[in-house]
């Protein structure tokens, strides 16, 4: 639960930095906007550690292979299936 709370706060801070960056760019404050980008990238890549994988199986055998990999992997996956 603590981890989810930290992720929530990181996302809120990231959104605030994104808004700040946009405002700073509009006001021609390039150095401060650059600092906001660096902080936002740090939060996104270091704290959330999210990776997206997209797979397009062409056969049912390939789909079963992906399903088996997800089931047997020690990592957590969220599978989203879009109807074709």
Low-confidence spans? none
Sheet with most strands? none
Counting helices, strands and paired strands, the structural category is mainly alpha
Question: What do the pLDDT scores average to?
Answer: 82
Helix-residue proportion: 55-70%
Give the percentage of residues in beta strands. under 5%
End-to-end span in angstroms?
36 Å
Tell me how many strands there are. Answer: 0
Task: Provide key terms for this protein.
mainly alpha, 84 residues
Report what the structure shows.
With 84 residues, the chain is an all-alpha fold. The protein is 68% helix and 0% strand. The chain has 3 helices and no strands. It has helices at residues 2-26, 30-48, 60-72. Helix 1 packs antiparallel against helix 2 (30-48). The longest helix is centred in the N-terminal third of the chain and has 25 residues, at 2-26. The two termini are 36 Å apart.
Short description:
The chain has 84 residues and is an all-alpha fold. 68% of the residues lie in helices and 0% in strands.
Any chance you could write out the topology, listing elements then pairs?
Layout: H1 2-26, H2 30-48, H3 60-72
Helix pairs in contact: 1-2
